[in-house]
């Protein structure tokens, strides 16, 4: 719960301090933040690994709990736009 609350708090801070000219700008900002949070930053509370690695490890142990394949979206410095996971 603490990780979710911290993530939500950071999203709330972004929303409170940033002006978005269009919903697409908001969507892209949230997607970029999600990638930064889930992929390159190890989290102390999950054993100093990234959230995506924790999810992959969990998938290996209990694959029956997952309906979708887990993707590692590497290449954060890429200028290629990807569709957001919620579309």
List the helices and strands in order: HHH
Domain module tally = 1
Helix content: 40-55%
Pairing-aware structural class of the strands and helices?
mainly alpha
Q: If you compute it from the alpha carbons, what radius of gyration comes out, rounded to the nearest whole angstrom?
A: 15 Å
Summed up, the helix count is 3
Runs in which pLDDT lies below 50 for 5 or more consecutive residues are: 76-87
Outline the structure in words.
The chain is mostly helical and 87 residues long. It has one domain (2-65). Helices cover 49% and strands 0% of the residues. The protein is built from 3 helices and no strands. It has helices at residues 2-17, 23-38, 51-61. The longest helix is centred in the first third of the chain and has 16 residues, at 2-17. The protein is globular and about 45 Å long. The two termini are 26 Å apart.
Please specify the SSE layout and strand pairing.
Layout: H1 2-17, H2 23-38, H3 51-61
